[in-house]
Amino acid sequence: MQDGGLPCSSRIKELVSLMEIKKIRNFSIIAHIDHGKTTLSDRLLHMTGTISDREMENQLLDSMDLEKERGITIKAHPVTMYYKAKDGEEYELNLIDTPGHVDFTYEVSRSLSACEGALLIIDAAQGVEAQTVANVNLAMNHNLTIIPVINKIDLPHADIPNVKKQLEDILAIPSEEAVLASAKEGTGIENVLESIIKIIPHPKEGSLEKTQALVFDSYFDSYRGVVAHLRVFSGTFRAGMQIKMLHTNKTVEIKEVGSFNPKPYKRPQLGEGETGYVTANIKSPSDVKIGDTLTDSRNPANALPGFQEIKPMVFSGIYPINSADYEHLKSNLAKLQLNDSAFFYQAESSAALGFGFRCGFLGLLHLEIIQERLRREFGMDIIATYPSVIYKVITTDGNEIDIDNPVYLPEPNYITTISEPMVDAYLMCPNEYIGDMMNLTAEKRGIIHETETLDAVRVILKGKIPLNEILIDFHDRIKSITRGYGSLDYEHSGYEAAKMVKLDMLVNGEPVDAFSLIVHRDKAEQRGRALTEKLKDVIPPQQFKVAIQAAIGGKVVARSTVSALRKDVTAKCYGGDISRKRKLLEKQKQGKKRMKTIGSVNIPQSAFIEVLKA
Question: Topology of domain 502-613, per CATH?
Fold first, then answer.
């Protein structure tokens, strides 16, 4: 431990006074999933004495069970560290631990806007991955100073010369700048800290007259309301000050300011170049937008650039399996939304599944996390409908409408065009799997338009794929085709017109809303056949034959039939003339014919659950 490593509480009291701006460093850590980002941040906290030996634990900044279990970061976690460098000076290091997954790109971009530099972690055994390239591009777009850290050098199959070569060839970063480290073993951590001080520039001095800060995250505290994480660009923030949020146009009074170590602690003020939090009696998380600018209400500054409204990209219906749990589910979704402003929900009902909610997510991982948290943290028994994306529909009268649920799609004769969201995909894989990856992309209606050789063993394929096609099994298929060596990164790239149609599922001639979906015309028959076969297995037999059909408009594209239950009406005929048996069977046949015209099929809840799980 450094000689600066005093117990946290006594160090904070010494250093809460405003730090000279030249001794502040703001940086974030970027990496592909599972390259050791969180382990390195744990080591930095320990080395700087921010966390004592007694408080030390693995994945310290990942507070959720899900984060620890999956080894991913879901929420950004800022932390302020104080470090006595070899030059004898004390420095304030503000680390923002960002999420690594593509779904949270906007959150990452706002966190990077709050920094002057970034540590780029690369696994010494796996090398540069698809997400590494995407994260470096994001950091370069924000003009950040990048320090490459080659992590996990203690692994027996670590290939440091190859990783250095990839750094230069793929990322155009000089290999001599790379710091060698093993976060798990604790080697090279001091070199990382010294590099941060020497290479990352200190914050620029802001305007003296204006007060300006960027909100890069927020969370809800049941006692203090919304706690906003901010980076101060100019001026100072202190308790009692009236501040204005420029994008929501609200004026509030600051109740408390402070920083994290990693737990929040109070400070008299937050100065230029520093990161921390403010509380101001803000009751609703929707009042604080990520990327918003805070300023003095009496002398407002201009808004900082780069603000966007976070829009959900993937939609799914969430319903309670037991309809009595509806109110319980409603209150639990409201609790989740308090700490996740990107999550959106509204009430909806379905003839088949009863009352539930239409929910919007940033992407598939986000959807999976919300569902898992509902099941785990709140003990909810839920069923989710097939995920869908937002389609832009231009009707015959020239109006443009956004459709996220097949139920609201207008009839085909009222539609001029349907456009679907596209993504620019970056697929990284070993050379021998290029053919398989191209076949998979073609199967998903994608086009590969560029192939780049990275080194002797790996290539990167760049292409365009519809977002709808990568929702379900695309990532799993990549991993199975490449035996775990492939990786995917994508970014949204607008809308393109496509031949999309609404596929209706009819059971005994009646459409069932819960099974409706929007698919490409070329895939409608294949999807319809798969669904009819699945439904045939789960719908219980009736007294008459039940037709299960997949239809586009009035045209049936696939069909299965559930065989009728045969009641043995001839059981009481023992012996005698055959005509007696025939008469009874004929009577039964007439009854079944009549029942088919007036009978209705009740699809049990279990059938919906089975189909939606599949």
Answer: Alpha-Beta Plaits (3.30.70)
